[in-house]
Amino acid sequence: MGAMLQGNFAVPRGYYEISPSEPWWRTLRKLKMGYETPRQLTIRGYQGRRAVVQRLRDDFFETEADLDSALYRGDSIVPVLPNTYEVYASLTAQEVAQRFGREFDAFWNADRCEAAQRLGLTRYEVTILASIVQAESKEPEEWPRIAGVYLTRLKQGKRLEADPTVVYAVLDRGLAEAPIRRVTGSMLKVSHPFNTYQTKGLPPGPLATVHPPVIDSVLASRATGELFFCANPAKPGFHLFSTSYREHLRNRSRYLRAITR
User: Is the pTM of this model over 0.85?
Assistant: First the structure.
């Protein structure tokens, strides 16, 4: 075996872990045949485009530009689900995108696809909506209700007017630095395909990686008739919901009074 593997050869691109206790002929065979050591790649939730690409760069030989192009080319954004993936460092940027695509396909079983159809949305649109919902609140009990507000607005042909989409647009244009703690009137006017104060319908892609429980909350929601919500000054982290603009203005006034005391 040793004689068969000796000589000059090119080691295929990859990540190899070699132990001092491993027989030399096994190490040589591993390198010659390209038997890579798999790596554990963990993608967390709430990670934006730049954070995802930078995380991938640490595990693959591909450039940030190539990874970004493979995952975020035009309107064909590949949804990346938070998870721990077993991957090989030699994967090309396109293969990385395909790996995430297969994970997304596996997540969307028949029950979830049927739930999306009942909402009148594609699975991709549900994921986009879920990315907005998770940016609005960290409280799981609020996720279905917030989703219901946006479903109602979509059903009625109204602009979503979702603040997280404005934050995304402003940061993407480089007009401010993160974190943006308050959306201003001038920010609402930023021209960007993700800014739902300026464009109707859902933005072209998810704002960030979306936790699966948020997607499931959206799938369990429905259009309730509520059209607005704002922060609840009496219960930090939660919101006050309303069906009319007049009621919304009253709730907003309560919130503004509370934060300016």
Answer: yes
